[in-house]
Request: fold
Amino acid sequence: MQDKLNELKKRLGEISDIQNAVSLLGWDQQTYMPPGGAGARAQQIATLSHLAHEKFIDDAMGRLLEELRVYASKLSYDSDDASLVRVAKRDYDKARRIPATLVFEIAHAGAQAFDAWRQARAASEFPQFAPFLQRNLDLKIQYAGCLGYTDRIYDPLLDEFEPDMKTAQIEAIFAEVKKEIVPLVHAIASRQDTVDNSFLCRPFDEQKQWDIGMEVAKHLGYDFNRGRQDRSPHPFTSSFSINDVRITTRFMADYFPAGFFATIHETGHALYDQGVSQSLERTLLAGGASLGIHESQSRMWENLVGRGLPFWKFFIPRARTLFPEQLKNVDAVKMYRAVNRVQPSLIRVEADEITYNLHIILRFELENMLLERRLDVKDLPEAWNAKMREYLGITPPDDAEGVLQDVHWSHGAFGYFPTYSLGNLFASQLFEQCKKEVPGLEASIEKGEFYPLLDWLRIRLHVHGRKFTLNELSNKITGKPLQTQPFITYLKNKYSEIYRL
Amino acid sequence: MQDKLNELKKRLGEISDIQNAVSLLGWDQQTYMPPGGAGARAQQIATLSHLAHEKFIDDAMGRLLEELRVYASKLSYDSDDASLVRVAKRDYDKARRIPATLVFEIAHAGAQAFDAWRQARAASEFPQFAPFLQRNLDLKIQYAGCLGYTDRIYDPLLDEFEPDMKTAQIEAIFAEVKKEIVPLVHAIASRQDTVDNSFLCRPFDEQKQWDIGMEVAKHLGYDFNRGRQDRSPHPFTSSFSINDVRITTRFMADYFPAGFFATIHETGHALYDQGVSQSLERTLLAGGASLGIHESQSRMWENLVGRGLPFWKFFIPRARTLFPEQLKNVDAVKMYRAVNRVQPSLIRVEADEITYNLHIILRFELENMLLERRLDVKDLPEAWNAKMREYLGITPPDDAEGVLQDVHWSHGAFGYFPTYSLGNLFASQLFEQCKKEVPGLEASIEKGEFYPLLDWLRIRLHVHGRKFTLNELSNKITGKPLQTQPFITYLKNKYSEIYRL
Reply:
């Protein structure tokens, strides 16, 4: 059986090499590739992705996994080998259920819809995009049918991004979040003048923004011997090995928080990928467990740490050294309040850590209505605007700033959005647990010592790579499945104090 | 038959995508990869290279090429399709002749020999390296046997880098070169004081060195929409598409010519790769025809253009603007003389354009003696030093600055060196032809107009990609096979004048 296990690892190792090459092709595309290279690059990515997929869905792989399944069931559930067989089998079964023609159709329709979306958004004309969105929906309904489901059509689509998570669980979670957060947002909206962040909306030298970002990333524990930072239009994290995990960032000349928190956010993702056990290198267990868990790490460092008062007690002297003019008379408390300003806004990617979740809930609800055919595509803008009014108290002036703002649906990526909020929730749950287990956690952050938090995350979460699902990890680390209470308590305490509610 | 041709192109297109991904993995390794990524990267390159090789030597590929061979022989020899089948068949037949085990043994022995070479060079102890060199030689003798040869064992090894070139032709060429150049070098050696380049051996600001290099590359015609420059320890050119051709450079803080001419040299390589006909994209005909022809392009731009008087008549005002202090009182003639200083030296990579060829001839002769077992490995240092004395009039003080200086033999790359000199020769032959066909060529360079030369090269040479061999191209463009006379005439005229011989 050891022979078969070695054979499995050999095959998965080759596939992992190809996938990592695809990641590098993508990283380069976003960072250094000259414009002329675009056509050839798309072709190269398509060829290599197809090759990795072909190798993975090979019949021989299926036989190997079937033979190893019984063997693996006798090993400890948590062991590397049992987890490798379990996760590979899960991925394999899903991959085999989708006909190659459907994969091709979805990719093709997505490329067309992406073009249509760009034009529709530029013209702020949803009807131009509607038939393409309809086509994407129809294909994804087919896709969900191939994967199969017993309860909700959203389940198999969500499962692509958050394995084993169910729509019903998210609905229950989101209902609680909505109940607590909508009133909080309305209360804050009536006290807009309480927080001043005007001193952050001024010119900040770009090189210094770069320098301060690099400094913070190092402080937090990002290992630059196994990573680097570059620039790209949209910040992202990309890994080509556990020992080569890179982040990118970008800056706004007149708004300090944009670049600074982008760097911390991506550093959070990178710390996760760098912390996976070396024994999982070249297996499909390297990398993060799911989008939601990945987001829990980026948002923990960005919001719970980087937007926390202890962090600024440590960091404000350094920030003032680099920006003496802009931050004159700004102390830790003033900075803390400024970087936590809440304002209901139209655009998801610009939202603060409270209202962000309402943008997500809105999308999650609309996706379900569309997929279950409870809402017609033609009525989507109206439904969007109604929910914006209800949750955030504002109405988009046009489709460009409303229903057309996100790229995701143009690619048919239904089921993706909720993972952002799952990340927020899980981050709070983990942080609460960490505070229980690591006495003086916030005091150490105040001293600029981040390793107590990082070490705890490494040992409890990062090392496991893709072995476990969100609920498995949540139970393992905190003794409970995913909870809403830590997040809601955190938000209420923090913002009641900041906004003196 | 069109179906079979399309099938061939589809297969070669996929292989080309994989090979271009390998090139990107290599480019990144030399430019941006953090140190931690090294292990995984070596594995990724090995996996993808193996995959491309496997796909290429597939039996189905062999059948396809066999079936298309007759069809292609009825097409014009120069056509894209006939050339594709011809070159693919040539590559395929060679690739099939080498057993996979031998490829593996050579790679493995090369990795060990590389380590041994580094240590031996650091200790300046050739005997430490000798057994590894012997092993590399033995394996390459086997390798040559697999490829087969009728005349010289060197032929099949040379053929890897310079298709269809024969050892006998190079011997005849090198004999003429040696006869003319050795006396020239000795004559110059006795007039060392004639040329002063001390003003170039001073601190030059690195950012300005970068700026002037970028400016020159643009002037020469390098399309930055389809390329870019980065830094790396050793300058190189790498292509991932005809529309994505990148160069790298490095600088010496106290010696201006190092970085400046490295950039022009690599620009020459890049102009060639960027000039290949777009119809050859994603076929194995994209890229340069051979190492010798590639080197003819890099050296033409570096030496015949960049070290020419017309170039400096155009460029000296600009250079003086950037470096007013270092180039005070330096006019075009003074600069021209300085950048053409000749000095017999120990190290090949630091050699000037005359003595460089003697370093090559020495290596070519020794390689043949070793492969034909006319020289024992243990006697190599002695033979090396004797030839250094004979050709260059100097004796290495130790093995590190003698026989151990080059990395090539540690990888078993026998047959590679002569292509450097073939490049020098062919560059002169092409340039002479261009001057005949393009009236006022040097006058246009004096005005900073490089497109007459570039256009001529594009139309006569670059567009063809890998379609033709060196001798085919030489006959096609100049009406003669590779000649020595243009190069020797060029050197004699130029250096008699500079050194007032």
Strands of chain A lie at 227-231, 237-241, 244-249. Chain A touches chain B at residues 13-14, 17-18, 20-21, 24-25, 28, 32-37, 39-41, 43-44, 47-48, 51, 223-228, 230, 240-244, 246, 281-282 (CB under 8 Å). The domain at 1-97 of chain A is CATH 1.20.58 (Methane Monooxygenase Hydroxylase; Chain G, domain 1). The longest strand of chain A covers residues 244-249.
